[in-house]
Each structure stands twice: as structure tokens, then as C-alpha cells.
Amino acid sequence: MAMLLAACLDAGAQQYKIEFRLEGATDSVLYIARHFRDQLQVVDSARAGKDGSYVFKGKKAWSRNIYALVHQDKEKAIGDFAIDDSRQFTITADAKMTPSTVKVKGSEANSRMFSYIARWNDAKQRRADIEKRKKNAATKERAEKEEQALLDEMKAYDDEVRHPKKSQVFFDLLNYFDDTDVPDTVTDKPYWFRTHYWDRLFSVKTPLPMAEMRYTPNLYNKLNYFFYGQLYHADSDTIIKEIDRLAARIGNDTAMLHYVFDHIEPRYFRSTRNIGWDAVWCHLASEYYLKGRCPWAKESTLYTMEFNYKRIRQSLIGAHGQELWMADTNQSDNPDDWISSHRFPTKYVILWFWDPDCHHCQEQSAELKTLYDSLLTAPYRPFEVYAVGYESDVAKWKKYVREHDFRWVNVGGPNVNIDYQEAYNVHGAPTMIILNEKRDIIMNKVIPIKSLLGFLKEYEKKRK
After folding, report:
1. What is the dihedral of CA 314, 316, 319, 325, to 10 degrees?
2. Within a domain: residue 129?
């Protein structure tokens, strides 16, 4: 019975012997790792032999894919190689596994892969040399002709070798992850490219099973390019549409959805990079995680996510700003003496949460004071500043306000009607919230003070 069970467990496994001979290598042990996002997951190891070689051998069901040979510190890859047509092969190279030095015995797939990479590396170097000569007027014309000849040469080479008769994983992935060409007839090319970006990944024919695609370096790079390249300057509505479109394509493939969401969700959480990106995170939380569409998420994770979602959604652009009532520097205990954040004659209100001990707050508050004071005698000042002292030491806050002669509305201390940190998702200083005449939030990021009037002017223009 035990022998039968062992035979069943070994059904997908086969003997393998993968040898690396790296001239000048000093590692006492090397590892084989698979790619997962931007990480390397170790799957095998081999110690340096007496002859300096590293031999990985045993019995294992290796998946067809691109793997990395990794240094003994497990942090840095020496280079990639393919496990494809053979499980018994030898790679000889220099210590850095430079493609031009690689010689392969026993694996046509690796031989063709390294040859291809070496040829392209050489072409890149040749083009770099040509680019230098293009900057010189005396050699520019000839260099341009050489450049065109090189491009034609490499195109012909690509057409010849990139589609081998027999399927090889390196070339399969290379072709598969190529960007889809935008038809010349398309007028809105960026939109077309964005909406067809994932066509190949979710086509009927894939070079690897979808679960295995997660262990290619290509998928991580493709995700990065899409969300932080193509969509870097997109508004939140556009990003949300593309997330929903991608999730619909993934469908019930939980492993792939897990891979994608683990990649993008942390980047949009409390993002300070772009205006409105916090709305993207709220959409992920409310429409996917909190609706049970992410079964991998732990209960503790969902609890924290729901807590953060309830706070962040209140301070999203477009939400109505909650009215604050706070005591000014007189620190009266009587609520009738407190000042409202909403009841000003100005069209806009800037809620400015700052800390006198914060160096950045000091700099920004000084710039805001210069702008504010310059408008004191102007015929029209579009905004009032409602500055909340984000400091538990009331005496220190009051002293700073007095010494720096802040003439706007200064409030702070414990006397307040609601928790403003929760109401406006204040998790650090400085924090800026801009309210319009309806006291709806139109900005929830700290923008440069010099851009403040320009922002309000642009906001007016868009509304018209």
C-alpha cells in the first residue's frame, strides 16, 4: 500500500539534473527560484562541487516556465533560464551568466533563448554607439543610415527566430506578452490601447496554464506598466472602470484575482501620489473585499478594511464635509462660543490641519500666511482658512499662533463637537481639505500653496 501511494505521489515527477558551471563564481551555494511578483521564491538549492560546478538533481515535477538562478544571499538573481524541453542540461558561463558567454548542452530551448538575448544585447550596444555619433553633425547622416540598417536587420532576425516550429516557453511568453498593435484606423489610440491591453492574456490560447502565468516575471511587469504607467495620470473613475473590466475578465479565477488585487490594493490605500486615488481603494474595498468576492482575505483584514473604508469614504472628493465646531485660542468651554467650519461668507473654506512641531507644517503654514495676508486688502478673497491645531499641548499651539501672527481662524484643543480625525481621515499633518460653497469636498490632498489660487480658478472653469 505504501509503495502504491509513493508511486501515485511521484506520478508527475521525473529525474532532473541541471548543472551550472560559472567561471569565477564564489557562492558556496546557489538556488533556483521562481518569479512571483517582484520577489523570488526558492524552490531548490545546490552546493558548489569540488570542480566549482553547481548541480541541482533529484526527482520533481518541474513546471514549464522561466526560472532564476539566485545568489546564496537569496536576494539577487544571477540570471534567468528556462525549464522547458529538457530536465537534464548544463549551462556554462561567466560568474554573471552574461548571455554572450553562455554555452548550453542538452537544452535547445535554453540555447536558443540565450543566443537571442545575446544578439539583442549586442544590437542595443551598437545602437547606443550610433546614437552618440548622431549628435555630431559631421557623422549624423551616416549614423542615421546605419541605425535604419540595424533596425531592418533586427526586424528580419526577429521574424526568423521568434516563432520556432516547436513551442518553446521563452519565445511563447515573449510573443504572448507583446503589446497589441493599435490599428491605424483608430482615432483615440490611448483609449483603444487601454481597453485592449489585456486581450492576449485572456485569449483562448495561452502558452501556460493561467495559474502558472503568475510565476512569470512578465505578468508583474505588465500589471505595473498598466496601472502605474498607462493609468498613472488617469482620474479615479477611469481607473475604477479598468479594474472592473479586468476583474470581469478574470471571472471566477480566484488565484489570479488574488494576484492582481494584492498588487494594486496597497498602492491605492491612502495614496498621496494622485488626487482622487483614495476613491479607487474605497471601490476595491466596498465592491470586492467587503462583498465577499475575495475569499483569501482574513477576517481580521476585512475588519480593518471596513473600519478604514468608513473613515476614508467620508473625506472623498464629492462627499459633503462634516461641520466642525471648535474652540478658538480663548478655549471657551461654552459651545455657544465655538466657531463653525462652514459658516463663512467666503465661497471656499480651507480646512488646514497642522502641527506646530512639524517642520513641513511650519514651512507650508508660512507660505499659506504669505498668500492669506496678501489678500487681506484685496477686493475679493475667495477662501477662508479654518486652521485646526493638531497638537495636544494647547499652550504650545497658542504660543506659536501668537508669535507668527496667523490672522485666519485658529481653532484647536479638546473642545470640539466631533472627532475631526475620523470625520476627515486626518492621519498626519499637514492635511488640507478644501470645501466649496455647498461645503462639499473638492480637494483632499495637500497641494502646493503657490498652486492654490490656480486650482480654485481651474475648478471654477470646469464647473462652467
Report:
1. 50
2. no
